[in-house]
Amino acid sequence: MNTSLRLRFLILISFIAFISLGLPDGLLGIAWPFISEKLDIPLDNLGVLLMFFVAGYLSSSLTNSKIMSKITLGWLLAFSCFFTGASLFGFAVSNQWIFLILSSYFLGSGGGAIDTSLNIFASAKFSPSVVNWLHAFYGIGATSGPLILTWLFTMGHTWQSGYFFVGSIQISLGILFLLTSKMWAVKEDKTEVKQENISYRLTLQKPMVWLSILIFFVYTGLEVSVGQWLFTLITQSRSILEESAGLWVSTFWGSLTLGRILFGFILKRSSTVKVLHLVMVGIILGAAAFLIDFSNLISFIGVFLIGFSCAPVFPSMIALVPDLFGEKFAANIIGFQISAAMIGGAILPAVSGFLTDPFGWEIIPLSFLVQAILLAFFYFFLIKNLKIKVKNF
């Protein structure tokens, strides 16, 4: 196989892999009420599962370089897919809370290894445009998860069928990685110039770095909160039928994916900072519309607007790091931002869930609006204080 054809084939497999990464995230938001009932545990325990998922994700992503020194990329991707597949089967058959927690932890471990490894490979082998599409395919997976589960419901199947189905996809992908393991070999470039090694301590001495980290904490917390709590909220508090609620969740993830595709073109013609200004306002308007709940249609539009407006925030903020703080600090700062994003994605949804006990389900849409306002405030404060560095953006 010639180099060009090989690269295209690897791009195709990578797209499929990122779809598979998004599928479990889309499943949990719909399956959780049924899991909660099966195991006789409170609905707000979803936050506990998310925290263990993130713990697993961080444990594999932070040790990725050490793992890669022991085994090849192809084998790592294969074993990680087998790991995630087995964890999804664990969700389907688990009859005990502790088993479900362990399944969530190992699902995070496998997903973190796949995500980190493919991003490292893509940054070295693929063009920036391909990397951008790569992340859009995650959204396709997250959008497809609720649709698959909703379709299975209409066919008379249970939520467990969805986990078995997606788990089987992961196992199949693991076999594909195993068969193509030699194609994933990464050759070191001896002419590569080694970047200046900047300590974490020196990086964190910049006050605005902490603010940028906080932005990722709040943003990802908001995105995950909407994705995971939307189904439970509208079925428990707003009398939306389960079949329709699944479409609401798919609309959120779908609008996020659509936004990433469209903003990829828009950002070629418009300033990154101007686009971020607009979408921050859009997130607040969407959250406010969903909270006020004038009608199902207005709330539905609010959900779409939140997802669409959230789309460019994560990748655009990552892209701005070298211009905001300088190239030599970029690697450290992006690492901190991604770690903060994973932690925020666990803590903020958990806090929202715990608040439902004393305040009721409608505290969740209020938390969406509060997080949206905080996100916009932190972003505008950051840009104002670093406006000289971003004047051309």
Automatic annotation (TrEMBL):
Primary localisation category: membrane
Matches recorded under SUPFAM superfamilies: MFS general substrate transporter
Entries under PROSITE patterns matching the protein: MFS (PS50850)
Membrane topology: Multi-pass membrane protein
Xref: InterPro entries: MFS, MFS_dom, MFS_trans_sf, MFS_Transporter
Domain Major facilitator superfamily (MFS) profile: 10-387
Keyword field: Membrane, Transmembrane, Transmembrane helix, Transport
Record has Endoplasmic reticulum as a keyword: no
Localization annotation: Endomembrane system
Pfam families referenced in this protein's UniProt entry, alphabetically: MFS_1
Cytoplasm in keyword set: no
Transmembrane segments: 9-35, 41-59, 71-91, 97-121, 133-153, 159-180, 209-233, 245-263, 275-292, 298-321, 333-351, 363-383
Family matches, as PANTHER family: BYPASS OF STOP CODON PROTEIN 6
Family: Belongs to the major facilitator superfamily.
Name of the featured protein: MFS transporter
UniProt lineage: Bacteria, Pseudomonadati, Bacteroidota, Cytophagia, Cytophagales
